[in-house]
Amino acid sequence: MNVTHTIEETPTLVFEKDVPIRMKDGIVLRANVYRPREPGTYPVVLAHGVYGKDVHFRDGFKPQWKILNKLYPGLATDGSTGRFLRWETADPERWVPDGYVLVSVDGRGSGKSEGYLDPFSARETMDHYELIEWAGAQEWSTGKVGLLGVSYFAIKQWQVAAMNPPSLAAIVPWEGASDLYREWSRHGGILSNSFPEAWLPRQVVGNQHGNGESPLRDPDTGERTTGPAREPGILAGSIAPHVDDLRRHVLDDAWFEERSADLEAIQVPILSAGNWGGPGLHLRGNIEGFLRAKSPHKWLSMHVGTHYESFYLPEYVVLQKRFFDRFLKGIENGLDEEPPLRLAIRHPDRTELRTDTAWPLPATEWTRLFLDAGTEALGSEAPVAPASATFEAASGELAFRTAPFERETEFTGPLALKLFASSTTADLDLFVTLRLFDGAGKEVRFVGAHEEVPVTRGWLRASHRRLDPERSEPYRPYLAHDRIEMLTPGEVYELDVEVWPTSIVCPPGYTLCLTVAGRDFQYETPGRMLHNDPTDRPDDVFSGRTTLHTGGDRQSYLLMPQQPR
Fold it and tell me: Which of 24, 56, 172, 440 has the fewest CB atoms nearer than 10 Å to its CB?
């Protein structure tokens, strides 16, 4: 591919396009650099990923662009032409005038960068390290580099921050997994196949280096962003078989280890932003990353809405800049005195902003809601009489409901479900869904990161039931995923399900419903994060009959993080 480095001045910034950056192994990556017109040195905000540094948000993601413009009508007029706006990365025209240099890099093998495209790989993470050090050494740089971006760009932040590059001064992972096994690949041990299967061809392969079939075009020239087409065989041999790799690696093995961040090694300041509406990808990792990182300066911000709107809305851009002003510019702006938790507390019709000091919240009143298979009730009293109920794993479910709440009741924090279950086959999958209903029986649905969502979800494959005793907590069972222990049909097993954290305020008269099924819970429109790979869930193993046992010496319960009001 013949690529030329060009420089252009606009009314607000200097735009260097396709800057070549040579990695230590000889591969050349290409970056776009946006810097202030006034000569000098500035802190750098860097993003590194595979979605195309030259793919305009408006052209590459039209439905999301329309939604964002509806939510934020000033998007195209509030100090920005929108020309440089790219998917899930910061808008240069809103950052550069405030004294920052923005650098956006096509990851190895994508866009205009050479090499073998291997998403989330250790080689890609080493590139990220070298890019940070390159940015810190440029003549326009103060030597302080921050990382900012959503989803893929956030996942990469967790990975490279664990290597502690000398020039890295702070990170803002916005809605990004920090554990590639538990959050991206296998929920509770069950292959989460539908999202990677759609994501890879839609957002990665289409922007592969040399893929002339890409529909994505450069907004300035109208040319295809990935240059002239290569032969199909060369393209196919230049990208890792990511989805097949996910299928092959059933346990949390060495392949996953090199693709998941060593969170305890992270030392830099962190602003971790997660989404309550992201059970499946954009939630757990931000909380786990915040908890386990060893940085003495770290904050957790939990919000609502789609996974892209919050990143660009003015109030959140102010939050991002305030954090970087403190740790990239050294401005004493009072951030250090603020509580580490900033939480959007969800009501059925609104949110309220609240701060707190620790996770789980210190005032949490851990409350057990017991399941009764005889009455399908979910209540505060443990049932005395043993009972059982059975459902067809391929089509059925059991639903356990609370009585209507007598007063406003809030649950904010992590959840855990203890079940006693048996199967007619050698394994079983559990899909757990917590839902909220109003007094008339109408479900409250929430805007999620990708789609409408219930209160929260959890998953477990029974053959992966072994816990890691060192990392498990009563409120957050941590599955080891280091072995497969099949079931004896008909035998009852004690199972602990990690239900992803949530925040919900239940008004008087409302009820909670816990659904336990052997397949994905869906609304009318099929979800994006499904677990329906026939090779991972063969009918002869996962389409049997599942029985839940409650009462007596088999007390099944949902542990809830109730908050005092």
Answer: 440
